[in-house]
Amino acid sequence: MSVVIRHAEPRDYADVIAVVDEWWGGRPMAAMLPKLFFVHFRDTSFAAEDGGRLAGFLCGFRSQTHDDEAYIHFVGVDPAHRGSGLGRELYDRFFAAVAPRTVIRAVTSPLNERSVAFHRALGFEVERIDEDYDGQGQARVLLVKHL
Amino acid sequence: MSVVIRHAEPRDYADVIAVVDEWWGGRPMAAMLPKLFFVHFRDTSFAAEDGGRLAGFLCGFRSQTHDDEAYIHFVGVDPAHRGSGLGRELYDRFFAAVAPRTVIRAVTSPLNERSVAFHRALGFEVERIDEDYDGQGQARVLLVKHL
Fold first, then answer.
1. Subunit contact A44:B64, Cβ cutoff 8 A
2. Consecutive 10-residue runs of chain B (147 residues): their mean pLDDT?
3. Going by C-beta distance under 8 Å and a sequence separation of 6 or more, which residues neighbour residue B19?
4. Scanning A36, A43, B56, B93, which has the fewest C-beta atoms within 10 Å of its C-beta?
5. Would you say the pTM of this structure is higher than 0.90?
6. How far apart are the CA of B34 and the nearest CA of chain A, in angstroms?
């Protein structure tokens, strides 16, 4: 694999926003991903490049309420790179970056069955499904992994 | 003023989301405010209550890239409470919570003239206007205050 993973930079944001709706199969996701992750959470956020072209990204941070927790907000992999192990590698980089924290949380839409299956394969457990987690009718699957 | 300001809690999120579009004059804002701020940034996020009813809120965090910076992501005040000093009081609570950090950043839409004027009155300076800051066509005024 010729893909290089590095820390996210502010300049990555435009590339990410340009592809994010398409990578999510046409769902309008861009409004849910403000630039702040690429500015203020760079050491726990990553961009993957394949010959200078964006192949994937991960945005996460250390919880500032729970000392042992970290949270993954957004992860995307170019459909052309799916199945290559890149998603798992992005998560591994995040787990290493937040060490020694051991509780990793993420939420995803129950409609995104690929995401739920991917997280289970990585060792995440489904804590519960909250039908209104991110607002009325915005259901989320709450996922947690203990490192 | 009988308004009480306290740290944000996850249970505040439903109340905030129920009013946020209305407080922004009908602009669809809810998608830009995920629950995570009420879970992982509680000591730098605040809810204001007036007799048990939400009167305002502020969501912010300490930058994890820039050691001396903090960022305010979202602030709302019930139109019925505007002009009462509540907005300023929410910012003061945030400034105290992030001490000893001295660089406070925020972004707002150039369309939101009330927000730009409010930040100027609080001592924020306009660094620049970025026409595509939060994605193509999503212009933002970049604001900074040095404490």
1. yes
2. 92 95 91 93 98 96 98 96 96 98 96 94 96 89 97
3. B54, B76, B78
4. A43
5. yes
6. 6
